[in-house]
Automatic annotation (TrEMBL):
This is ABC transporter substrate-binding protein. Residues 78-419 form the Solute-binding protein family domain. Residues 1-25 form the signal peptide. PANTHER family: MONOACYL PHOSPHATIDYLINOSITOL TETRAMANNOSIDE-BINDING PROTEIN LPQW-RELATED, PERIPLASMIC BINDING COMPONENT OF ABC TRANSPORTER. Keywords: Signal. It comes from the Bacteria.
Length: 499
């Protein structure tokens, strides 16, 4: 049974919270009957005009409007999409482009069109994040696209699964701008974007795959978490992403789903200078932290206690970690802190982190440390964190980046040459394990190499994983087939509709 009709909802909500109702002017006209447009409320508005070369690309993927050559399965292994097959020959990968596909502007998907789109991404300034440090050249012949990298790269198919490398028609590219409006290949055609407030999509009846069940999608961007929760509670939205933990308990629990995220709340310890240069004090900090108290107290039970850097969003990690525990490198013995003074930094942009910092302060002070906190906005603290200006830093870190492979995250954060090495770690054993993981062919062997690298990092106590975060998604009564995707690449698919 659906919630009351829109006019009644609006009147009821206006009497209780007039300010919130103004955020949700629905563009679709549903009545609860089959064939209703899907009303989606999202947290972050577009930052780059929905350019697929930015993080906005993940919105395009979640709306099933822009597609890539390759998709990923639950384990992060590549599967066909706009490409039906591929093969590697040294530095060169050849992809066969799917036949019978048209862009939303009616033009056909060809190898030449794919090469044009990928070349635009590879030569963009700045490059899409997935291509950081990667040089590639793309050519087309017949229905084959050839991708050549400067060095052999076992992750090319996974890289091409990134929404930032979505394939758009030639009309999308005008000078330095890229517009996905009417230029994708997905089940829904993007028809309108109203700045940072809303977007509209219609079903694309020429879609190469299964035709979408819903006639369209109406998207509203609402940064305020309380307002997003109110939209679900009042029936103003059918699907609501990223409901804050503080609001989740106030909602009908049958309407919400907790999705494990590939995101770990981690305490990074400065191994280069200060008290935590001492491995014994790092071990003392690890022993002092009660991760279960953080999961229950700060996250109200809506987070998982971390056993490692990689969490339940990667279903293979726990079993492979158990295999390694019998031979895991021995950690240093704890040293009594003796009042050692430390400064912990974190940021306000994620609402839970300042509270996590306060909880950690209590844990570490009880263990004998003297703890000072420094909390700022992320934009004002990142450079100091990367420069090693703090003894410790609390970070909510995505462990699976755009390729769907955690080796990139581990290398970035813990290799001596890593670009995001907040722990200032320079450990030959860790570097060796990370290099092996990066060079191993995708599949089971690579996953085992990744877990060996995780074990090497944890043995140093340079990072103390605390909790794996979850995201709370709301689906109104009558919503069928909404995706709950840990990688946040899927949300509305051709199978999604409102009864």
């Amino acid at each position: 049974m659906r919630l009351p009709s829109r006019p009644l909802q609006a009147a009821a909500l206006a009497s209780a919270a007039t300010l919130l109702t103004g955020c949700f002017a629905a563009t679709g006209q549903g009545s609860g009957a089959p064939g209703e447009r899907i009303r989606v409320t999202m947290m972050n508005p577009p930052r780059s005009g929905l350019s697929p070369l930015s993080d906005d690309a993940f919105k395009l993927s979640r709306w099933s409007t822009a597609e890539t050559l390759v998709t990923l399965d639950a384990n992060g292994d590549p599967r066909p999409a706009l490409a039906t097959s591929w093969r590697q020959n040294g530095r060169t990968w050849s992809f066969t482009v799917r036949d019978g596909v048209t862009f939303h502007d009616g033009s056909p998907l060809t190898a030449k069109a794919v090469a044009h789109s990928l070349t635009k991404a590879a030569t963009a300034s700045p490059k899409p994040r997935i291509l950081d440090g990667v040089d590639l050249a793309v050519t087309a012949s017949g229905r084959t696209v050839t991708v050549t990298t400067a060095t052999a790269d076992p992750l090319v198919p996974q890289r091409l699964s990134s929404p930032q490398l979505s394939i758009l028609s030639a009309k999308a590219y005008r000078g330095k701008t890229v517009s996905p409006v009417g230029t994708g290949t997905g089940a829904f055609r993007l028809t309108d974007v109203d700045g940072t407030s809303s977007a509209a999509l219609d079903r694309y009846d020429g879609y190469w795959g299964t035709k979408a069940k819903a006639p369209g999608i109406d998207v509203t961007f609402v940064p305020d978490g309380t307002a997003r929760a109110a939209a679900l509670r009042s029936g103003e939205a059918d699907i609501v992403e990223a409901i804050p933990v503080s609001q989740a308990a106030l909602l009908d629990q049958e309407l919400i789903t907790e999705v494990p995220m590939p995101r770990t709340n981690t305490l990074y310890l400065n191994t280069a200078k200060g008290p935590f240069k001492n491995p014994g004090l790092r071990a003392a900090a690890r022993r002092a932290i009660d991760a279960a108290a953080i999961a229950q107290g700060v996250y109200e039970g809506r987070a998982d206690v971390a056993r490692g850097l990689l969490g339940p969003a990667l279903p293979w990690a726990a079993a492979l970690r158990a295999e390694r525990e019998r031979t895991e490198p021995k950690r240093a013995a704890a040293t009594a802190p003796g009042g050692a003074a430390i400064t912990i930094g974190t940021f306000t942009d994620r609402a839970e982190l300042p509270e996590v910092a306060q909880t950690l302060q209590q844990h570490l002070q009880r263990a004998g440390f003297t703890v000072k906190l420094e909390v700022r906005e992320y934009a004002n603290i990142e450079s100091d964190a990367l420069a090693g200006e703090f003894d410790a830093f609390i970070l909510s870190r995505a462990t699976v980046l755009d390729s769907g492979d955690p080796a990139a995250y581990l290398y970035s954060d813990f290799a001596s040459r890593g670009s995001f090495n907040i722990a200032q770690l320079a450990d030959p054993t860790v570097d060796k394990a990370l290099d092996k993981a990066a060079a191993t062919k995708a599949g089971d062997a690579r996953r085992r190499a990744v877990m060996a690298a995780e074990a090497a990092v944890l043995a140093t106590d340079a990072a103390i994983p605390m909790v794996h975060e979850r995201v709370v998604q709301g689906d109104a009564p009558g919503v069928v087939g909404a995706e709950h995707d840990p990688r946040e690449r899927l949300l509305v698919t051709p199978a999604t509709y409102v009864k």
